[in-house]
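Notes, p. 3: input format for complexes.
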Amino acid sequence: MKPMALDILVFLLFLFSHDFHLKCKAETEAEALLKWKNSLSNPESLSSWSLTNSTNHCHWFGITCNTAGSIVELNLPDCSLDGNLDELDFTYLSNLTKLDLSGNTLTGSIPRTLSALDKLTSLEISNNGLETSDFSEFKAMPTLTHLSLRSNNFPTMELPSFILNCTNLTVLDLSVNEFNGTMPDSLGTNLVNLRCLNLSFNSFSGSIPSSIGNMASLEHLDMSFNLLEGKLPSTMSQLENLTYLDLSNNKLNGAIPAGLGQGGLLYHADFKNNAFWGVLSESLCSGFKLQYLDVSYNKFYGALPSCLRNCTGLKQIVLTDNYFMGDISKAFGLHPKLISLYLKGNQLTGTLSTDWGQCTSLISLIIEDNNISGEIPKEFGNMRSLQELSLASNILTGEIPQELVNLSSLWSLKLNNNMLSGHIPRISLTTPLIVLDLSGNKLSGQIPAEIGNSSSLSSLDLSDNLLAGHISEKLGDLTNLMQLDLSSNELSGSIPSSLARLKALQQLNLSYNNLAGQIPEAFSGMYSLYSIDFSYNKLTGPIPSAIVFYRSYEAYFGNAGLCGDALGLLSCGFSTSDQGSHKKHTTLLIAITVPVAGCSLMLLVAIATVCRRHRTSKVTETENHSLVWDTGLKFKFTDVMEAIDDFNEAYCIGEGSFGVVYRAELPSGQVLAVKRQHFSDESDIQENNVRSFLNEIKFLLEVRHRNIVKLHGACTKKGVMHLVFDYVERGSLGDVLYSVLGGLTFDWAMRVNVIHGVAHAVAYLHNDCLQNIVHRDISINNVLLDNDFEPKVSDFGTAKMLKHDASSWTAVVGSYGYIAPELAYMTKFTDKCDVYSFGVVTLEVMMGMHPGELLLNLPSMSSSSQGNDLLLKDVLDNRLLPPTGQLAEQIVFIVKVALACTQTDPASRPTMLSIAQELSTRKKSYLSEPLGTISFKNLLQVSRSGVLLK
Ligand SMILES: *[C@@H]1O[C@H](CO)[C@@H](O)[C@H](O)[C@H]1NC(C)=O
Ligand SMILES: *[C@@H]1O[C@H](CO)[C@@H](O)[C@H](O)[C@H]1NC(C)=O
Ligand SMILES: *[C@@H]1O[C@H](CO)[C@@H](O)[C@H](O)[C@H]1NC(C)=O
Ligand SMILES: *[C@@H]1O[C@H](CO)[C@@H](O)[C@H](O)[C@H]1NC(C)=O
Ligand SMILES: *[C@@H]1O[C@H](CO)[C@@H](O)[C@H](O)[C@H]1NC(C)=O
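Output follows (950 residues plus 2-acetamido-2-deoxy-beta-D-glucopyranose):
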């Protein structure tokens, strides 16, 4: 018995201590993983993880084992894993040193058991949708050297404190989250081993702690897109290993510490969009390693650091909007690798060096708005990669070198506002010009007919020169043209009817010339046109019969012989022999004033009632004006009038079919915009109309939203309305989108932000207010952008009170090209009309052009086989590089939303609220296929199937 029992015991011991033990453990590691795999909503994505394969789980996909067969690495990046981590118990994986789950769509919390992994050195869980709201139970992980939580869905919270105790970290990436609060001092005192610190795209506030100077190993520092303020600590100049520094898009101020970058290794320095000032320090380029420098939108002044001239590896320099001075030919040397140089809006002097001709990699050269003099060297024609050249707003003289317009990649050429003379050069057939602006020079001679061969031209501005002769028929061949401005020249003859072939044209200005004859009736078929100006010519006869021609009353001033149904013109039945427009204006004024005076008593009664209900605004009424004013304001309407010297032209900043805008700077420094508009046509100035207008203004005064321009008050006087708003610096979305800089400065991230902002603003108007407000006129001209490219919706709710159309169209307002199709047969303006306009604006921002033609083709595209080969990437604004990563996903989603919004049936369009919510919550996921291969038609079908948004 005994030996037998011993045998069994030995066997059992053996079993427990060795084989069985190992086997059991191995199964436990594998089982822990299988349990998690089966909890995923797509377990099939880990098909190699199966029990039939369990004999050696070390061969499973993504797994690395140690020699003892225990899992040490789990590498599952970009595996489309969809689910959460609740079933992943890390206590069974205690040998793990590396965990990479990045680029999946994992949600939920990170299990606390993770911080018990006491051998973990690398943790990569970036680009998921993880939502952990509380890290307080996470313990410090001293072994961790690499941690990335980039782009997850954590709620807004302060920096998790366990991270500050991971003292062995060399790489810390917390970017694209919503961490807030100040950066603790312990960041620099504890994490002294960091080589890479990325805190970009968060909401960190306060100043950068001076302890950062302790991170002696730091090479890569990115704190861009936060809310940081204050000065940079001088200790930053101790960071001698720094190679990459991005502090852009914060609210930092003060000077850049002398000595920053003195290690001489810096190749990337970005200070864009802050309030920095002072002189750029020599230390930034002392090692001549600099390749990328962006200090745009700050208040730097003085000369550029002299070492810049010797940085032969320079690739991109952006100095836009500072106060740099000095001679441009001394500041730069030979930079054969230079790709882009943006010097716009500084005070540089000197002449253009012929050396620039050797910058054969240069793609964008923007020297706009400086004090550069002399001639344009013909060597500029040697910059064979050049795509974008702006020398606008300098004091250049001489002729435009023929060599310049032979460049085979040039799509944008802006030489406007100089003193250039001579003829317009013949543009080579191979030059793919899209934008040509030669306005504001002293160019003479005829417009060369060959310009009609530049079939890619989208914007042509030759205004304000000394051009003479006839307008060539050949301009009608520019079928992609969206803007044509030939105003303020000495052009004569008639307007060629061939221009009616410009079906994409949105803006046409032929004012201030000597053009005679009729405006061709064929122009009424130019469906994209929304802004026209024929004023101050010698035109005669009836105006064309499309809406845009009816509502643009200023477009005809100074033409004695025009007639038609537009306001201010005599109807064509009448004799057109009375002279000039002066007389017509007098008639108009009388027609407006009389009904207003007649009903002022009724108004008083109505307004008194209104006043009792609301306290935040006040209405005052005198015999000839009514004022609605936000009573909380420190300034009065009369102060505003004083600031613009009672509509002195000197304060006028914009003019169009909407009226005139003035800029009012109050003594306090506050800047306001005053919009002066005429009411709808005379028959509309009924007592009801004015009363409901004042009533609505009172509601509008209550509207407070970060993406809506603040309205402070309004005053109506003799048929004219004055609206007082906050001033928004950058002007309209349209101005920014279609400026040449729009191709660069207004990048994808900003565009996404603009669409989000507009969606939220309109959703707010539709839902959150005391009263639902339908905007009625959403267009790229009614969205303004502030200095930070933050959108501000303007002109909400007032559109319908304004003069837009001939009488038969009074109910239809909005800007042509943005109006929902149902308004052609219905007169009721619903919130779904706004949704349509929002869709058009969104597509326009994504495409960099009005989607008119695309929208026309969509109905046939979604059913037939037409458009099968159209790719999304071909539709996106090709002035920008295609978006990548998460931005690409956001843009695909935004295009889907826009397509859903532009459906013909209003009932199928999503509501603004659902759009705003979806845009906010869907911002963190990944594309299932590369952007480059996404078919536009598939996108259209998905977006219009109704599954996208409800
Ligand atoms: C087992 O895993 C290996 C390695 O991933 C894989 O090649 C093999 O196809 C798997 N076998 C089964 C039956 O899944
Ligand atoms: C970890 O690996 C060691 C061998 O390096 C092994 O002895 C131990 O059992 C493993 N731990 C687990 C939990 O598998
Ligand atoms: C921290 O890093 C150092 C150097 O790499 C290493 O010697 C040390 O063991 C690490 N500490 C921990 C707790 O892992
Ligand atoms: C971090 O370390 C400090 C000092 O060692 C300790 O008091 C604190 O509890 C630690 N915090 C965490 C979250 O580990
Ligand atoms: C951070 O965000 C949270 C949640 O929104 C908020 O409660 C907290 O006050 C914020 N902290 C700071 C410093 O802004």
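The pocket of 2-acetamido-2-deoxy-beta-D-glucopyranose (ligand 5) is lined by residues 156, 180-181 (CB under 6 Å).
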